[in-house]
């Protein structure tokens, strides 16, 4: 049974952003964890060829952000985009055709999944409108589980339910040991994501469980806690970085009933 929520009490707010251009510096090359220099496409812009449900790793890329990378040039408005957008929120590219997509995660930018046939017509600088809704979502029968960054309309389409014993049953494609958690630790769990070191498999959108991680008021190590997120970025070459999940649920481990399922992915509910 899908958990009961306070979704009827959550207002929606329209936010404005634009597709950020990819950026670089005059030296071009960066150095990976083994000391090898590389020059590869990565963050920003419109990244084609990879969507939610596709492999997150194995690409010739660094800090891969599939689809649209959205920001706002005004810092305060940009923070609103980061903190208020949620996975599953509808995004409309403003223009003559007005194609729609969905937020699938956060990184340096808000990340948007869009059909390839629509994405090829989008360019950096194009404006988008996001129907932001979800921050403040609560599971009424699971008071120990904190929900982060999740559109309530997506919840019923995720492999999430109240188990017979009263715990929150969540299917996950992988369980991640705390030693793999890298960049993102210490940051607000509504901002960007958590990089996972040494992860060499998985798909964009996979639900993963981060063991001994407490993301209720930030991101940090806490024995006996758990965070569940959806992979929102792919290959990362820098030491301490890797594919990163956007946090969706967190709380004490005893509040969860995890089910291993390689098919657990937010794309199934798109």
UniProtKB/TrEMBL annotation:
This is DUF4438 domain-containing protein. InterPro entries: DUF4438_C, DUF4438_N, TM_1086_sf, TM_1086_SG_dom. It holds the Pfam family DUF4438. Residues 29-155, 158-267 form the DUF4438 domain.
